[in-house]
Structures are given as structure tokens and as C-alpha cells.
User: Fold these one by one.
Assistant:
Number 1:
Amino acid sequence: MGAAGLVRGNGAFRSLFVARSVSFLGDSLGLVALLLYVEAATGAALAVALLLLAGDFTPGLFGAVAGAIGDRFDLRRVMVGCELAQGVLVAVMAFTLPPLPVLLVLVAVWSIVAQVFQAGSRSAVPALVEDKDLETANSTLGAGTNGLEAIGPLVAAVLFLVLDVRGILLIDAATFAVSAVLLSRLPPCRLLLSTGTLRC
């Protein structure tokens, strides 16, 4: 089955695909907004570098933990909880536009939660599609999320014509809410310890 047929014909995978794509688009919008905010507020390249470091380096420290969480709990609840948590974190940043030290902490926490979501969403794929469609599903998921993440800066540039940093961040927060609603449609997913496989 091709990518289009898989998305059309498998409702559970479609929900995951759209939810993850929307979430990654929001991530990209939020990052652009925060980078511009930090650069404008501090005028320091070091501050921008610290922001990128908080978002990119921190998740690597918790990669093993992120995967373990999905193994221990219902993946649907984990993913929905992660999206809601990310939405709250981004909304807090939008409403407060905190000073750099606080912002770095919030971004670090955000990136860790995002890492848990990403690990969970990847783990859910084999339970949602047949074995023969697994390769197509993984490539489709990657293409959709990476594509939207790539065009995020362009979308942000257009939005900045009519919105400020707060507005962009609130849109980002809204994407997490949309993603959470879509993910709530998935069946419960748990790891079967007897076989080491995931079932939804």
C-alpha cells in the first residue's frame, strides 16, 4: 500500500500522522519566534546560542528515559499528556515572555517533553499498521513531519507580517491542543512484556 492509501485507509495511522505533523509544525513556528524574541531582547549571539543549546542538547541527556516511559505506560495517554504539557509550557512563554534564564529552563523542559512524545509516536507505528506497511508508514511519518518542520520558518515569516512573538507562540500552543485531540482518538497502546511487542 502506498503512502496516500495508507493515510486514507488507516484511520488510526492518519490521526497519528496528522497529529505529529501539526505538532512538528508548531515546534518550528515556536522556535523561530523564540529565536527572534531572544535576539531582539538581548542583542547577544550568546543568548541565541544558549537557547539553541537548551532545545537541542538537553533531550539527548534523557533519550533512554524517554523511550522507557512509553514502555511502561499507555502510549496514547503518554502522547496526549506530552502534547498538553507542551501546549501549557508554550502558552506560559507566550503570556510572560520571561527573562532569558527562566526561558532557558522552560525551553529545556519543553524539549524533554517533546523527546518523550517523539519516542512514543515512533513506537506506536508498528502497532497501528500491518507489518507489510511498516516501512511505508515510517517513511510517510518522517516525510510529513520533516517537511512541515522545514517549512515552519517560512510560515512563521508570513505570520510575522500580522502577528507578534506572543501571537506566534499562541498558535504553537494551539497546534499542541489540536494534536492532543487527534491523538485521543487512538486506541490504548501497551507493551506486551511476554512478547516484547506493542498492541493497540
Number 2:
Amino acid sequence: MVIESIIRPLRAEKRPWELFFYGILISSIGLFLGYWVFRDKADLVMIFLTVFAATPLMFHAVRTEEKKDVLSSTEKGLLAEHSKLIAFYIFLFIGMTTSLAIWYVLLPTDISSVIFQQQATTIAQINAPIAQTTGGATSNAVSSQVLLRIFSNNLKVLIFCIIFSFLYGAGAIFILTWNASVVAVAIGNLIKIGIKKYAATVGFAKAAAYLQTISFSFSRYFVHGLPEMIAYMIAGLAGGIISAAIINHHTQNEKFQKILFDVSALLTLSLAILFAAAIIESYVTPSLF
């Protein structure tokens, strides 16, 4: 396929920053094709179209990581090798988020409300329980309750990543793309608020205000959002490695024990990062923003 041939797994691993532009490209194509062909369901169709474009790359990358598990002699070196794949997951996520946030801001409201309808609903559903939790309690109690709620919600997503990757090989890319679209809408909403706020400003001051608004909006969600995505990606990688090991019949030899050990290390690391991200979202982000 034309889109799939733009970048290969080996090239992506050596030059992960290129995945930023690849993420922009495939999410933009998915957005416009989804709205053009399936207008009423564009909010979900664009996700599937983006996932279709990213799946071959991710599937081959996961297969490569499983081979490294079999051939590697040290766990330390193996984790360093896995970090290369995590890097291009991160750049892909940032690219898709940036692209979708820009389109959310630039497109007319009547169009963006259709394309991002389900994402906006999801944000409202996430915020509602947190708002209820913060009512009528001390700040310390509120922070603890919010921390537990955020971590439990994120833990469910992490489990979905493992299951999706185990069943579909590169299934975590669906979770990654969906989260990118939700974060993009949240960022876009902040940018729109800032644009309205500084609409009357003119000249250099207006440009500076807009730049500050954009920087603030991305930072507000990337501070805790990126660690969350890294945790999901690591968990998805673990599920994908097990899936590839089963497909390649590596469960029937002594190498499977090494694979299980590596998967256990990846899952432990993902849980630790996920909990750290929940702490950042509960305590650090509110104090900074």
C-alpha cells in the first residue's frame, strides 16, 4: 500500500522522529476520508482508518521485538532495544495528537463537532466523576480520591492494551490512536478558549498570546499524558510479544521462559510509570496549571 510504504520498521527504529510526521499524515487522511465517506460516524471511522494505516508498521515492529527477546542474552540490553520502539510510539502519538488538535481548532465548529463528537462525550464522562469526587471534602482527601479514581481508570485502559495486543498483535495502536484523539480535543478546547480571550488583542502581543496559549494547552495535557501513553505502549508491547511468541511456536522451547521474564519486566515497568503518571495528574498538574 502507498501509505504503508512511506516508512519501514527498521527505518522508523533508527529515525523515530519521522513517526511524528507520519502520525500527522495518517491522522489527517483518516479525518478527511472519514468525514467525506461516513460523515455521521466520522468520529469513529477516522480512528479506524488511522489504525489501518499504522497497523502494518506496528505489527512488523512487534514481531521484530519478539525476535530480539529470543536472541538477546541480557535483560539490560533488551530493555535498551525495546526503548527504541517506545520512542517511535511516542513520536507517532505526538504527531497524531498535534494533527487532530490543529484540525479541531481550524475546522468550522459545525464540522469539528461532528468529527469529534464521541471524543467530546468521552471527555465529559471522564470529568463528571472527578467533579463529583471533589465536592465537600478536604483538599488532601480529594487528591487521594482523585488519584485512586484516575489510576483505576488508567489501569483499565492498560489492561485493554494488553488484551488488544495479545489478540490482534498490534492492537494497542487502537488505544493509542483513540487516546490521541481525545487528548487532541481537550487541547483544542483550551486553545479555543485562549483564542477567544485574546481575540481583541492586536499586533505582536496577539501573536505572543496565541503562542503562549498553544504552549500552555499542550503542556497541560502532555505533562501527565505522555507518561500515561508510555505505560500503555509498554503494556501493549508486552502483550504483542506474547502474541508473537505463540504465533511463532516459541512456547514449546526453553526460550519462552526468557520471553516471559521480559514480558513480566515490561508489565512491572508499565504499572510503575502508570502510577507515577496518576500522581502527576492528581498533584503536579493542578498545581502547575
Number 3:
Amino acid sequence: MEYDFEESRVMTEIRGRNAKKVLIQLPEGMKKEAFGILDSIGRNCNAEIVISGSSCWGGCDLAVDQAKKINADLLIHFGHAQFVRADFPVLYVELHSKLDAASLLRENIGKIDIEKIGLVGSVQYVKQFENIKKYLESIGKKVFIPKKKGFAAYDGHVVGCEYNSLKTIENEVDGFLVIGNKFHSLGAALMCVDKNVYLLNEQSNNLELMNDERNKVVRQRAVAIDKVKRANKIGIVVDNKIGQYNLKIAERLKNDLEKLGKEAMIIVVGEFSPGLMNFYDVDAFIDTACPRISIEDYGRYDKPIINSREASVVVGRRSWEELLEKGLIGFA
């Protein structure tokens, strides 16, 4: 396994909690490890291990209801840091990477042509930030690791919907280096649209500049917002996931849209999916759940979809230029 599954800690927690039944929740890219986890953990403890097969998109997406339904004593959530508080025992295993990110960066350092670097990454790499910082400083770079903010659990930590810490050092750096994958680096690029954003890619073992991809998405978002502005009937989607439930945002948007003379309705879902297209008379949708759905999944839908922060432009609370300044990732 290329990540640390912390089997010893997991088994200690199971025994210490005297858990008889445990539900394991894995992110999509880690479901392939299910049998390995059963083998390494299940045979070394007396608990019954059950695997959640539902989608898992982040620490916001806890399988608490499933755990309660099967009368589990503990939910073990792999791949993310704590995001929300749950009324159920949850053990978080962050899956720290075994990849030596500093060595990979050393092989690709010639591709970075900026001096003042903001260093951030997914939770899998937070333990490696100091080594990376030391290496960069040893070759004359100035490195800034932003203090944690919002949903981030650690300094320099970014999650799919949380990049506000980048704004706190934006004026001090020439650009950002993101350790992780394209999902997190694109989010950083969309948050700081005037900065170079580099990705040290854990999947391709390469270093990539995200500016071109960022610019393409910015153009896409401008078109989507314009389409929603011209829509007459708008569905405002609320997801009932524990970490994505934003009914108050939806109610405020509904009120704002109706003041503009538009018809709006709130739609509650268990998961945002193309099934929404069955609302044939709805012209466009506003996603109040994960702000990345409207970006990564935009091509899956036949109708325009924007997130709640983008919707602030539709209802006149901020201009397009103000949205770009604030950053495209976040909530209303």
C-alpha cells in the first residue's frame, strides 16, 4: 500500500472501544484496498468488519446513517481529516503518503520559475511540508505555509471546498505549490486566479503548471453564470449529507431570486446526480452542497449548474470581478 493505513492504531482503537461491529468507509480511489484492509485489520481483532459501498467524496460525507442502521459501534473513515462533528463515534485515518515528495520535487525543480512560494497540499502530505520547505529554502526560495483556516485541519492543508488560507498569504507570494492531485491544485488555482499554481502530482510523478486548465474553467464558469442569469425557473439543490447541508443558504438564494422575478424551488437530495435532469421544467440549478460539483461534474448535466458562491453574481450581491477576487471555490 502506498499510503499509511495505520493498522496498529486502528486495531488499538477497535479494542479500546470494545467495538463489536465496525463500518469502514473508503474514498472512491481507495475502495480497491477493501480486501487488504479486511485481511490486515479484520483477522487481528474480534470485531465484525463491514465495508460501506456508498460514494465518499470527502470528510463532509460521513456514513453515519449507515453505521447506525447496521448497529455498528464505530465508523472508521479513511482518507480525510475531521471535517464535521458527528453524533456517532468516528475514527479518522488520514492515509499519509509514503511518497517522498521532497525527492520528487528535487527532480522537477527546474520547472518552477518563481521565488516566493506558498506551500499547501492535501492531508496526505501535511507531515512532509517541513522537509519540502527546508529543501526549497536550501536553493534560495522563500516559502510560506498558510495558517489553517475554516475546514482545514492543519497549516497548509487544503480540502476541496476550503482554500481561504491561501488568500491570507496571496500578496506575499509569487505563486503556489500544491502537493497532491489535480483536484486540489485546480481548487487553489481557482481561488487565486492571478497567481501561478504548480502541482506536484502524486499520480504522474510530475510537476505541472495549472494556469491553462484554470483559465479554461474560468471561461466555463462565466458562461454558466450567464446562462443561469437568463434562466426563468431555477432549482436550488440542498444535499442532506452531514457536512454538505446548507438549507439557510438555499432559502436566502430562493428569496433573492424571487425578488428578481424568477421562479425558484428548493430540492433536497441524498446525493447530487444527473437524476435532477428529470425536473424537465427547471432551466438551471444552483448547488448549495459541495461547490466543486458544478465544476468537476459540469459536463455530466444537460442544464447549467453553478455553486452558491457563483449564484451571488446572479442575484447581484457581487460582480463577476469581485467573485474572481474572492475566489471561485466556497460558499455564498
